[in-house]
Structure formats: C-alpha cells, structure tokens
Amino acid sequence: MGTHGPGPGLQLQSGLQPELRALPGLLKTLGMLAMTHAEVVTATERALASNPVLERAEGHPCPGCGRHVASGTCFRCRGGQGVSRFQDGPEPAVNPFASLDEDARVEVRPDSRHALDLVLAHLTSRGLLDCEPEQIAQLHGLQPGQVHEALRALRAVGPPEIAATSVVELLALQAEALAAAGEVPEWLPHLVRGHLADLAAGSTDGAARALGLSGAEVLAGLAVVRERLRPFVAMDTSAGAAAIQTADVFLYRRTDGSLEVEVPASAWFGLQVVDLSAGLTDASGAKQWLTEHELAARRLQYQIDRRAGALLRITECAVTHQKDFLDHGDAGHHRPLTRTAVAQETGLHPSTVSRAVSGKRLRLPSGTVTDLACLFGKGQAARAALQEYMTTAAGGAASDEQLRGALARSGFAIARRTVNKYRRSLQQDA
Questions:
Q1: What is the pLDDT of residues 125-144, one digit of tens each?
Q2: Residues 6+ apart with CB under 8 A from 281
Q3: pTM value?
C-alpha cells in the first residue's frame, strides 16, 4: 500500500469494494473471512478434486511465495518489480542442480569423470536431459556404461528426478520418491507414467480401469499431481520441502520506498472455470448438472475474492498507520492502533476486522512471516522506551514514579499503574 495506493496487481480486487459494508453477515455465512491461507488452500483442493468445471491453469506454484505461475518463479520473487514475463524453468538462484558438479565428482568412478561434464552440459533449465543417454554416448564417443555411471552419481547426490528424459518421467520419479516415503499411494507413479495424457484430456475412466481404482481415487491422485509435483527438478520431494512458507497477506516495497499490500485472490491460485457445454446433450438433467457445478465453481472464486478484498482493505489501512514501524522495524516506532479504529476508517464492522485479523499471517518485504496482529495494539512504543531505559544503571533502580517521569519526558504520558504493569511484564519476559 503506502502513499500511492494499490499497485496494478491489485486491480483484480478493485471491483470488490462497494459492498464491503455488508461483509459482517455475508462473510460469516460464506465462512471464508475467518479462514487462514492454509484452510483456503484445502478448500480449493477439495473443490478441484470434486468439481469437473473448476480447474487450475497450466503451471505450478512459485517456489518462493506460492503464487500460481506459468513457469519458473513469479516476477516478485525474481525481484523484477512490475515485470509480468516468466522465464522457462527455475531461476538460477534456486536452481537445484547448479552445485551438483562438485559433489558428483566425489561420487562418480574415476573412469567416468570426463563423462560427468558432458552429461551436465546436456541438462536443460528444468533439469531434464535434452536427449537419451545412449545418444549422449554416441555423440561424444563414450561408452554407454560411462554415461550411466555419471547419471548414477548425479542422482546419488542430487534430487532423484535429475536428468530425466521427459517431463512425464520427471513427474513419475518425484511421485516414486513420495510413495517411497509413504506420503502418497503406491499407485500414483503408475498413474503418472501411464495415464497423465488421459487425465490432462479430462478422461479418468481408462486410468481407473487399468489401475483398479475408483473415479474418486483417480481425482484425488490428480490433485496430488497438481499440488505436489513440479515440471522441473525439485530440490526435495519431502512434505517439508513441498510446503511453501506462505502467508495470508504479502507486503512489498516499491522502488520509491512505499509499501504495497497484496492478498491472494482466486487468480493467485490459478483457478479457472472451463466450458463443458460443447457436445452436451439437451437432456435437462445434464444441463442442470453442468449449471450446478458452474455455479459452485464461480461461488468459490467469488468467496475467495471477497475474503481477499476485505483483508486488503483492512491491511492497507493498518499499514498506513504503521509505516514508520514497518520502515524501521522496531517497536519504538509502533503507533497505537485498535481494530475498532480500523473498522471506523474502513466502514466495516469491528467484528469483521477482528475476524479478518485473527490467525492471519503477514509476509514482510524482508521475507519474514509474522502475525498480522503485529500491526495492531497499544503501548508497544512506550514499552520499548521503558525497556531501553530500564537497561541503564539509573533505570534499573528507579521507582515506578521515576520511570513514569522519564517516559513523560520522552513523550509518553502514561499512568504510574500502567508503568508498573509494563515493568512487571518486561521482567517476566526477561
């Protein structure tokens, strides 16, 4: 946010503002405002698995923030403010095989070290081989065994899917790693290897018959493919590595030093409604089935966007008040701010603001994730000044009245009882 208002990335949500005064009853009914980002993700995945007209656009979550992108990392995580183009594959800064050379040299047999350099030269930006191992051997006059030994060394020190020969094989190897860890069903790698094209075309019957699965199991497997597998080499396929430390609200610093707030809306998750009307029979039951699913899909998008619009408005207001605190990063610059005051400024009900702030996480421009509630509260600057004064020789032995006078001279007019409360709280924290 800041003095210049929302940036272009927030235009999606600009049409959501006029009805925000009605949010208390509406969002309580929808149940979205109180949800954390993780809960919204869970609700989204369930909808994707159960609703045939709701799908995620081609791409994957950005490794840095979780925003859905066509490829690589998003423009913000690349540091390209305002740039909307995406590079093909992961950025060099997060390239998972950039440092494999040295480790693989220790692992590979001496007679195949020269083959290692040649194999590395055939890796694409996604970590795939640009041709088959036998072709590499033929091109460079190597023995096939030397190429396979170089590949073995790479996979021993790097991700298991490194140097796959196709995207399907890369995804299948990731699925095998997850299955070996017991995190996904054992049939998932077979689903990926043999039926990914059918699933991409929207057909689940063939995979279900071939693998002896129900349609629901196939859809659940497809949801795992969308959420956990990446079309480029991942550094780690464990659950901990797959989980992106994301937040409900993101705060970015523009080149002019002002602050911009962004809240994930439906576009952040890559959600889109597909048209399945082509070839649909005129039977009333089929039309009703399609209409009901379309309404459910658009309702989910609407709910996510309304949640985003409310959080955006509240956070922008709070950031305006706490600009000095966010610029300097210390409690001494924190201004007293209550949820009721923000409700009055934004025209929202106080309960709406409380529901929106509760449990939500804020990602600062530095990348640190903290509670959104850090923007609210009273007395933080006075507490910081009191703590600083108490560390001095005079302050450590001072009475509550003396401390009150010292704070008053610094511009903090608080009662002696409040000084005593802050003092005891600081002593307990220490």
A1: 678 898 999 999 999 999 99
A2: none
A3: 0.52
